[in-house]
Design a protein that fits this description.
about 25% helix; about 50% strand; globular
Amino acid sequence: MKGGTQMTKTGTLILVLTAIISLIFLRPSVGRGEQLTVQQKSDLPTIEKAMICEKVEDRTPVGTRDSFPSSLGTLYCFTELMHIPTQGSVYHVWYYGKKEMARIELPISPPRWRTWSSKTILSNWKGDWKVEIVFGDHILRTLTFAVE
């Protein structure tokens, strides 16, 4: 009987140690993943303003709307960024339908920056357009508009 009791205590001890080791090494990494996501988001600039417009005057967008006449010729994508973590670049990627038409690199500096790109629009390029504002591997915002 004494040998049986000893085996039960040893078995219980092994089970407890196995459970502790499992909790330490096999615990889900949800907390770490969420912390990494928060860290990644804090490394991204935020967009204060972003719009498609007819022109930019004195660093201010003019003629903003959702659709533009094809006779206009040139459109602008204006972006104001805040909380820029480090000097670098943002990209304006212009799409006509699903086809990438231009990828324009724009330098930015902390902590706040206003910038814009322009795209010549031919009169026969009517339809749906979009501009993705990209920082690193992250699309910060997508602007959609039409040319009629």
